[in-house]
Each structure stands twice: as C-alpha cells, then as structure tokens.
Amino acid sequence: MRLSRSFVPTLKETPAEAQIASHRLMLRAGLVRQTAAGIYAWLPAGLRVLQNIAQIVREEQDASGAQEVLMPTIQSADLWRQSGRYDGYGEEMLRLKDRHKRDLLYGPTNEEMITEIFASGVKSYREFPQNLYHIQWKFRDEVRPRFGVMRGREFLMKDAYSFDLDYEGAVIAYRKMMLAYMRTFQRLGLKAIPMVADTGPIGGDLSHEFIVLAPTGESQVYFEGGFEAIDWMKADFDNQNPADLERFTTLMTSMYAATDEKHDTAKWAEVPESNRREGRGIEVGHIFYFGTKYSEPMKLSVIGPDGKPIIPHMGSYGIGVSRLAGAIIEASHDEAGIIWPDSVAPWKAGILNLKVGDAKCDAICEEVYKALGGNALYDDRNERAGGKFADADLMGHPWQVIVGPRGAANGMVELKRRATGERVEVSVADALAKILG
Ligand code: 5CA
C-alpha cells in the first residue's frame, strides 16, 4: 500500500483516555478507533494484524484436527434456558428482543448453540471424537471495559468445542488443544504459560488459563523458568499419539505455574530460587473440560455399541483473538512504538522515501515496492524524513527500507531491523533477500 493513499490515521499526541502502552500505541498507530465504550472499529492496518493472528490460530486448530464452522452472533434465549444459564449469566449478557417480542441475545460464548447443532446432526458413536471451532465476535457487557481491545465489550474469540464418548477421550482432546495453544502462541511471538484456573461461569472441573507476561497484566503469576525454554515448533510431540500427549502433559505438570488465586506458597518454596519467575500476566486463552454439563440438559446422546445411550463429554477452548493484538504489543514495544513480530505485522516492511521527487529515490522505492507487493507499506508522502522515521518506528514494521539520495545515487539502501535497531547499507537485491528470506 502507498501511505499517501491509505487510511492509516497516526496520531502524534498520546490519547488521554489510554492508560496502557498497547492501547496508546493502537490508537497512535491508527490500528483501531473506539466507536462506543469497549467497542472498536478495526482500520486497515489493525485489520491486517487481526487477520494474521486469526490465520495462525486457524492453522494450528486445523492441524490439531478441529474443523472450522461459523455460528451466528445472535442467539435465541430458549437455547440458554435449556442449559439453565439464561438467568444466571447476569448483566454481562446483552439481551435483545425481535419484532415478535422473542428473547434473543448477542452471544458471549457458544456452548449451548454448538451442542444443539451437534446433537441435531450426529448419528453414531462411530463419529466421535470431534472438535468444532469458529472465530466470531462475542459481546459481554463488561462493567469496566478498559485497556482498549484488551478488555472490550465486543471482541473476537476463537472458541472450539470437543465431543468425546468418555472422560478418557475428553482428556486426550484437552491435551491436544493445550499442545496446539503452545504452538499458536509461540508463532505469535509470545511466551504463554498454562496455569491451573477457576472455571467461572463456563463450569466444569479441569481448566487452564494461558498467560502472557506484561507489567500491566491483571493478575500476579508465578511459574518456573523451564516453560520459557521450550521451543514448541521443534518439540517432538505428535498430537495424534496419546503416548506423546501423555509425555507432553507430564512435562507441563512437572513445572510449577499458578496465578495468585491458586498460588501455593509451600509448593513455590520447593522451586529452586534461580528457577522462579513472577510478574503480572494477561490471559490470552482459557480451556475447560466440563463433562456432560451441556450435553445432558441439551439432550445430546448417542446409542453406544452395547445399545445403551452415551452422553458425550465436552470441553471448550477459547483464545482472545482481538485481545492478542493488544497483548502482543504489551509484550513487544519500546519508547518509539510497536515492534511487531514478523508473523503478525500488518506489513513486513515499510519503504521510506526520504526525497520524494528525486528520480533515483523514486525509482528505487518503486522497484522495492513492486518486488514486495502486498508485504510493504510505501511511505511516498511528501514529508520530512524525521516524520517518516517516527511513523515507521511507531507502526512497528519488522523491516524498514530507507531510501535517501546519497545511497540511491549508488544503488544502495539502508535496511533497518526494528527489533534490534540495527541499520546496514545494502544493495536493493540484498535488502529484498533479507526481507523475503
Ligand atoms: N467458552 C469458553 C471457552 S471457548 C470461554 O468463553 N472462555 S473465556 O471466557 O475464558 O474467554 C476466552 C478468551 O476470550 C479469554 O481467555 C480472553 O483471552 C478472551 N476474552 C474474554 N473476555 C474478553 C474481553 N472482554 N475482551 C477481550 N477478550 C476477552
């Protein structure tokens, strides 16, 4: 994209309403705009980030064997009356009425709906196990929406729902999902640590939160350094092999990790001091096993091999897709702005033309822009260099291709790596090879 013709409304001033770095930077870099309390519009650069995050989440869900669906945002209250959650959910639920005075709601989550859909289609115990997920907007009328997209009222969530014939099957589904989460968060450039959690209104008796460290996180967390050392893309755990999943679980449970609600000071004292890590954490995912809590009231059952009915065991698995955009910035920024991990950056590179109108500068910029295609944001505005440097740092492109008249005369550009600040003078071909390599 050419910046001169793009809607990327950056701000020089720090918006007064933003209390934390990610909120400030998302507004300043022109990623989102608030349209009502806790409700955000995603602008071109922000939407690219959101889509990149969603795509990584999707790829890892698919790799774990889950199938993508898309359920509606609006749900019938009757569904929730059936599970018994309609009254209990309280004021967080946005309740609506249609023209026939029927009670509807804007979904805060989809356990009821998926259970009904699955029950209406599944015919035999032979079809198990299954896991269905979608990436869809949710609404929760939070008392105190704050920190921008981090605690919104409308937010994008990936929610997956597993169906198994028994507890043992459900545990395998749960472990598979946990492994998929470790890979997902690593691909997003994050170190997320699973911690035993309370189940809250989703219910059930086995639950983990996935926590990313950031000073502005909402809970205090304690964990062992070993979690940070594991490279999940290289770790040899086959998600189709129950023995591997068992080994994976043993590894995860061998290390201490807890939020302040579940913190056990006696156990913590047993962790060698050099291994102890603590700080504030942001919850980016939450998984639950809840047995037959929904399948039973929603009348999901199949006839088993012995002719007896089986009530399937379920779990649900959430990732805060829109929250992640904020969490990634919390974990990766500096004074000057955002430092996007390559995998989620709206553009891999910014091209900075320091002298628009200079034939050599223009020609080189056009050449780089053409070669990078959709991967680049070309700053072709007729502005001074200082403003372009500041905006590129603010927007956080992993690479900056800086094209000034002196270098351009010799066919050279400067290539800056945002994360390290390192700048090198290279040929156009070398710059392209680095960015695309
Ligand atoms: N049905 C279950 C799992 S699918 C569920 O709703 N779990 S949850 O309540 O824990 O939400 C899942 C994830 O959504 C959270 O881990 C968090 O990352 C994100 N999330 C929850 N509330 C908000 C909010 N108000 N704003 C942004 N993200 C949120």
CATH superfamily of the largest domain: Bira Bifunctional Protein, Domain 2
From the 3D coordinates, which CATH architecture of the largest domain would you assign? 2-Layer Sandwich
Number of strands: 23
What is the CATH fold-level name of the largest domain? BirA Bifunctional Protein, domain 2
Poorly predicted tracts of residues: none
Amount of beta strand: 25-35%
User: Compute the gyration radius: what is it?
Assistant: 24 Å
Q: List the bound ligands.
A: 5'-O-(N-(L-cysteinyl)-sulfamoyl)adenosine
The overall average pLDDT, rounded, is 96
Q: What class do helices, strands and sheet pairing give?
A: alpha+beta
What CATH first level of the largest domain would be assigned? Alpha Beta
Helix content: 25-40%
Count of DSSP helices?
13
State the end-to-end distance.
21 Å
Q: Tell me the major beta sheet.
A: 9 strands, mixed
The geometry reads as globular
The total number of structural domains is: 2
